[in-house]
Amino acid sequence: MYAEWNDLSRIERKTENLSDRTIPLLDRIADLGDLQHGLEVTLARVRLIDDLDGLAGLGRRVDSLSQLFRENFSDREDTIAEELSSADADVFQNVVKGRQDIVAQNTKINALVSQAVDKILALEKSIVVAQIEFGNQQRDVQSRQEESLSVTWAIDTAKTLGEISGSVASLAILTKDFPLETGTGNTGTRQSLVAEINILASRLARLKNLEARHDIAGVLVDYRNTMLGPDGVVEALSALQTRQAGQEQLYGEAEAVLNNIGAWTRSSTQRAAMEFRQSAAETSRIVERIRFVDVAFNMCMLLISLALLWFMIEVRMISRIHRLTRHIQRMSRGHLEDPIDTAGSDEIAEIAKAVEKSRLTAAALQRSNEELERFAYVAAHDLRAPRRAISNLIEWTEEDFADEMPADAQINIGLIRNRTDRLSGHLSALLDYARAGQIDGEHGAFSLTKFAEELRLYFNSNSAFEIRVEQDCGPFGAYLTPLKTILINLISNASKHHDRSSGTIRMSSELYPNYVEITVADDGPGIPKQYQDQIFVLFQTLKSRDEVEGSGLGLALVQKLARSLGGSVSVVSNPDVARGTVFTVRVPLNTPSAKTPNDIQGLAA
Question: Which residue spans traverse the membrane (predicted)?
Answer without folding.
Answer: 295-313
